[in-house]
Amino acid sequence: MVTSRTPALSSWGNDADPQRVRIQYAIEPDPAYNDTTYTLTADTPYVETGEVAALAVPQETPLVDGTHLRVRARTYDGTDYSTAWSAWQTFTVDTSKAPAPEVPTDLATGAVQTTTPLLTGVVTAAGEGAVTAEYQLYDASGNAVGETLTVGVQDGDRAVAKVPDGLLTDGATYRWKMRACADNVCSANTQLQTFTLDVAEETGTSGTTGTAPEAVTNLKAVAGEHGALVTWSPAEFIGDADDVVTYTVTAVASDGTTAGTVTTTGLSAVFNELNADAGDITYSFKVTGKNDYGTGPAATSGGIVPAAVTGGTEAHQRALEAYHYARGGMVTGSYVDAWDAAAGSAYGAQFVDLLARDQESLLRERIAVSEDDTDNSWPEASFSDVLAIPSADGKTVTLRATVTTTNVIVTDASTGTADPTDETGKTEMRYTFTAGAAPVLLSAVTAAAKEVVVRPTGAALDDFANAVDGELMADGLAPSEFDGDSTDDGSETTSTATTVSFDAQQAGTYLRTGAATWAVTHWDSPSFYDQDCTNFVSRAIHHGGDVRMKGSGDENHKSKDYWWRKPSNWIHEETWTWINAGYFKTFMERHMLHSKRNTSNAFTGDIIFYDWKNDGKVDHASIITKISNGKIYVTQHNKNYKYRSLAAQKSAEPKTKIWIYRPKPKWY
Known about the structure:
By secondary structure, the protein is an alpha+beta fold. It is 16% helix and 34% strand. It has 11 helices and 35 strands.
């Protein structure tokens, strides 16, 4: 049985000669039922003999739900098809049997001091990529308020819905619940959450000179094995767009001695080498912020005692390393499916269930890295700042780690112009295991999704600005086409691109190579926001591309006609055009667009906006930082990547629509 209408098929590609081969798949009705007329014959990309060749059923010709089909395969070596097909395998298409997403967790209501509060929760749907979160809002009497709110979010991230203005009354109490849905299969609803609207006038500070950071807020320490996880909200200060606060975190033992120090520009610190004799030592953590204007006051956490973990950190890390190794093997075509990968590992039983849910996305990545004479190395994962944290009830253990992945992708692999690209990703993650000596891996979410503080003030609207109000404007440009490899030479000619206006040709300059270089240099810098992709692109355009901000900082932060970031400038530090993909797309169309491109004429420095689910909402932004034999690679934040293959992005989310824009400022 298959639970998707566009499943990925996989089979070994073998030939007597050591050469590249491909697999041809044929799908037709199961004659025992004859309940459909569906047929499909299609070929995979070429792969090395002895590797797995995968094919995804196209979005344009999906299987028919509720029908019975059969499939077979044969090998093609570039000259001849193998004389014999494989045996037929029958299957049923039943999307109702698809595994449901987990019930959302870590629910929090933010911005309750405004008329448009935020309803948030972490969603988990392994292997699904983009997930839809649905929210129902009620008044104190249980009557529904407004329509169902829906938002798209990536698996393992925090889903955020903003209540529309005009629905709620100051001083009134409301309740809400949410669920997660993927491919029309939904989780159960969460328990009802309650909040009372208490609208407060926004206040802020401004200044023409910079200030030292204030004390951090929401400082929290959580005990782990031989250590602790320390998190906090950013320190406020007045400064410029490129000003950064560096935090010094000091672990202080109960006897007053310093047990360790971490310096970071992020919002968390991991200590995993504190005294193993946890029974009689308590640790607190002092956090101090410093910028170019001075050092701020310190904040100190409450005390914690390091916790014991059954099996120890190593037992959990070994299983996690084996899980990532198996994922890499599926992407390189070394395993035909999740069970094959698990069978080759001593820890297979501890991760096979989660890997099976990842299987579809991994096979799609396999397709992306083998198309058009492309090949790749075995993706590797390394782990740092690893900390095992037991749950309060002792039933689960969270392994908190910074995961760095590397994958060498080679375009035109069989030719003299073969070009390797080092695709690198880095994300702080939280993996949940069952407790015990042989822990079973249950789920994975981004650390930011679980650890971010959802503030009650209006500042929360800025914290999560990229996650809300991403709807496409009715007067926006049509999506770009996936029309093949890029043949653009980087010139400013527009004969094959959609030029916006004559004014765009006469406007200020944008240093495309400079923006791309800045992005590659800063790809793994700490994120400013929970959803940081658009802020990262804005910074690349401003700092690397040498594009001036538009506006003085006094304008309405929701205006789509200005673009600036000024920390602690009045009430809002930035315009939403700076940090929200939908707002920034509209701003570019109005004020910063040289031309719209397709994949065939895109080039380094162009900006890409994404609608993952083709649901009319802009979800993400990235910048093109390399073209390798026509293949496009982007650099981005939100699961940070340097040189992420655009083909892999599209393969993971086959419904994706994109807009490729070449910037050029028109206001100076």
